């Protein structure tokens, strides 16, 4: 599948679990895993971190690719996985000196092919679990049984076992520059000066590479932290919005209930009024007959009316008061939720501008710019104030950068990813290859994504020639 570019180099794959190497295999064995000839049941349904190493005849590492691979429930490797190790190493930047000069290094923050970085991971540059020191010690132990060649060792000194090759700048260890072996040939004074200058230049180059790798790793970690913070606050905001919607629905339900109770109360009052008027008419008719009877009827009517009204209004009044209290409580709760949402939105914006102990602001003041790549828009420089908008909707940001609306940009992106004719006739898509339009501003829906037989101009000519048949 992949072969080493040098005959004396050997390919090997090492699997990590935390800071430790738990499995080693030669590259042909890894090819058998990729072809699903051999399964790794220990990694069932897992995404595993691994490193492809290129090892020379003196058991020194000359190249490393830090990659991730997924396994299904049966322990079989993802059939869609395919990382060209040799191509990456040929185009990769250099890393630390592992005994044979600076190695070729490809990782998440130092990937020569941008779209492959999602399948990469960054080595640990800390002092306690330095990934490069762990790899050096594992290769030196030679558990793979590689044959060490007896050729003369290079003039570069071997790194000290157990000491990290690259460490972060906030730790005491620094990058070990390559030095000449003590057994090297004694040079003339002029040649010694040239050799000293070359060694100093190599030391400066190694320090610069170390700082570049450290800065890339810090940027990747900070970006991931920002994405995690954004995701956390987005979920929290959605949860609060759901709570607010539930409270709003409950408030509307109680308002409808209150309205029904008020309507019922008004209906009962009308019935009582009608009954009173009827009684009054009866009283007027009976007044001529017997004043005592009238008095008794008045007292009886007053008592019955008062009792009936009190009996009817008591539960309704109590329910109405309770509903009003509940409505007031929910309004206060909704007001508190709205204030909390506004505070979360303000905190979210503040975290994007001042998060990570103002690391983003420090990076910007140091001359570092955030650059993102989107199809059609190319590399876009993103201000720190725009970072939140970009993470929220990259497609919208890219469409604005290309001076086109979002629907047109998405139509162009579908055409750019699959340049075929999208004409649908008889329920079937044409599917003929068409010329790819590289810029969204040049894309015309229904024209540039159609073959020569289905463009608007071809349809117009066909209607003219065949009378619309």
Automatic annotation (TrEMBL):
It comes from the Bacteria. Residues 158-177 are annotated as: Disordered. Residues 223-271 form a coiled coil. This is Chromosome partitioning protein ParA. Keywords: Coiled coil. It comes from Sinobacterium norvegicum.
